[in-house]
Amino acid sequence: MLVVMHSHATPEQIAQVIAAIQGMSLTAHPLPGATRTAIGITGNLSAVDPNALAGLPGVLELLRVTKPYKLASREMHEADTYVRLPQTTIGPGTFTLIAGPCSVENEEMILRTADFLVSQGVRLMRAGAFKPRSSPYAFQGLAHAGLEILAKARARTGIGIVTELMDTENADAVEEAADVIQIGTRNMQNFSLLRRVARSSRPVLLKRGMSATLEEWLMAAEYVMAGNNFNVILCERGVRTFSDHSRNTLDLSVIPPVKHLSHLPILVDPSHGTGKRDYVPAMARAALAAGADGLLIEIHPEPDRALSDGAQSLDFPGFARLLESLRRLADPLGVVIN
Ligand code: PEP
Ligand code: MN
Question: Per-residue pLDDT averaged across 176-200, rounded?
Answer without folding.
Answer: 98
